[in-house]
Amino acid sequence: MRNVGIIMRRELASYFATPLAYVFIVIFLLLANWFAFYLGSFYERGQADLDSLFGFLPWLFLFLIPALSMKLWAEERKSGSIELLMTQPVTLREAVLGKFLAAWIFTAFALALTFPLWLTVNYLGRPDNGAILAAYLGSLLLAGGFLAIGSCMSALTRSQVVAFILGVFACLVLLLAGFPGVIDVFRSWAPQPIVDAIASLSFLAHYDSIRKGVIDVRDLLYFAMLISFFLLATAIALDLRKAD
Amino acid sequence: MIKTEHLTKHYGALTAVEDVSFQVGPGEVLGFLGPNGAGKTTTMRMLAGFVTPTSGTASICGHDVESDPLAAKAALGYLPEGAPSYGEMTVRRFLAFIADLRALEGARREARLRHVIEHLQLGGVLDQTIETLSKGFRRRVGLAQAIVHDPPVLVLDEPTDGLDPNQKHEVRTLINDMARDKIIVISTHILEEVDAVCTRAIIISQGRIVADDTPAGLAARSRYHNAVSMQLEQPAQLSEARAAVAALPTVAQVEVSERDARLTALPRAGAPILPALSELAARSGLKLKELHLESGRLDEVFRTITS
Lengths: 244, 307
Prior knowledge:
The complex is a heterodimer. Chain A is mainly α. Chain A has helices spanning 2-17, 20-39, 51-54, 57-69, 71-79, 81-86, 92-112, 115-124, 129-155, 160-175, 180-187, 192-200, 203-211, 217-241. The longest helix of chain A is centred in the middle third of the chain and has 27 residues, at 129-155. Chain A is globular, with a radius of gyration of 19 Å. Chain A starts with a helix and ends with a helix. Chain B is built from 11 helices and 14 strands. Chain B has a 6-stranded mixed sheet, sandwiched between helices. Chain B has a 4-stranded antiparallel sheet with strand order 2-1-4-5.
């Protein structure tokens, strides 16, 4: 576990050693606020809540998170530094977890910087702060899920662009898993239990239920399992292909 | 102790390394030689636990690299080919990161970091990011990370590649200094390196070991072993000298280089020919610029074995 911390700190520091961290945070905040105020009609709705922000966050994450996760492993493989890292006395799991946690903490930091919106609703009205906190938690879990998927896609390729495109696609499929367009593809040939299983994989359903302020163990478990699954898949993909 | 037994790596239908077995003990500096693509790097990577062998085993200080990877890696200092590192990090932060992963702490950590920074002369670039460094400095940063934890075993994949002659000399001095109490394997395709640092050399070709010997032993395989080379003052005497040398009973063959008026006499079956030749020169009044005995040419042995 000590190594997880060491790798995580190195990774986090590297975000801030390059323009990546600043560009990501500025663009994220610009878009998040623009979505909330214009598309989400923050003022016009006349309600003291942050639904206008959280409703759009999954779509914002859909593009920004894979942009963050694409470099996790593809860059290490491209530059060869993966050979340096994996010949230190660390396990693959420690490395996968350390790098994932760095990206997740960074996302949490970016998310936390939307706090002026929260201050604003508290100034303008009396929002349900418990529900807002739950929605922040849901957003963080959603980001974690996206990052785990992105980490896995990044482990599959040396090209960051390919990792990005694969990441967006995989996240989109899971985001929309409960929607008719995706379900119909499966309904035509798969038996009902499988269709139901796919529908229950939907990010949005679990995210929405947490966002409404109901923190259900099943939703937490869903995100925990999804993140674990894709991190394990990352480790397996790396183990098979790290030296290619 | 490094030990490999029947180490083999296939990439699909391609055989990168085939049945490589060797042992290296303390005090030995093993040069791993071979043409590009012969399987040097793949072998190094299997020793370092980065590539999984298709079959066979490798162990570092008794720790199998497959079944006990952390202990094997802890005993090993490894410089990957091309000395990859994290370009956006400063040298100082990078070395601190490696020291952390190597679990160095307290006074020992400070002492080791100071030691590698001093010995690899990194003091002037500590706060530069690695991507801004020259190739030579990057290689030295790679070497620094390999030795920072003072490992008993060092595996260095082309440690002097891309260095200028002065830097090569420094790195070789460093390797020689460490050689007394460590086990060192270096891969190289630079033959002068073998003479400069190695106590033993393995030549591999197409994934197989084709020679395993001391540098002197390898040189003795050369047809130039015990050959005598003489350079004449007057190029005009060249054809006359050639005829006289070729007439000696112990000389098998004479090679002539007109460019620098040089004769090389190859002996018959290892017979000593230097006395006969110096006597001949004195007797027939040949004016010599130079006369010397060759120990053998490694590059010629290398070409013969690997082509």
